[in-house]
Input
Amino acid sequence: MNSKPKARVLVVEDNPANLELFLDILEMGGYESLHATEGAEGIEIAAREVPDLILLDIQLPGIDGLSVVKALRSMPATRNIKTIALTAYAMKGDREMFIEKGFDGYIAKPVAVRGFLESLKEYLRSPNRSACRATD
Ligand code: MN
Output
């Protein structure tokens, strides 16, 4: 059986219970994972490891998620990494807001395992923001 290399996903989440849940689900889905519990650490790992996708909590101590994604988009090494917001406050119209802020999309918390893995698969398959902009 030929297997594709596993996608690597960085989770930046300060809540230990949520972080553990996300890491468990990623393992279940066959993904490799990296994690950080603070924004600055997340930026550092993203720049060093260049994961395939970043799941980024919005409410973080210190540098919050919106500032983190702004920093990621400003650096050549991390500019094109797909970055998905993790938010407990998703509402109608938020997708546009998150795209505007530099995200590729969002996943609302709390998450259900199956829906979460499906969203992840979809995001990994879809073109990233820069590809979208290039065809504008
Ligand atoms: Mn948080």
About this structure: The chain has one domain: 8-126. The two ends are 39 Å apart (CA to CA). The pocket of manganese (II) ion is lined by residues 14-15, 57, 59-60 (CB under 6 Å).
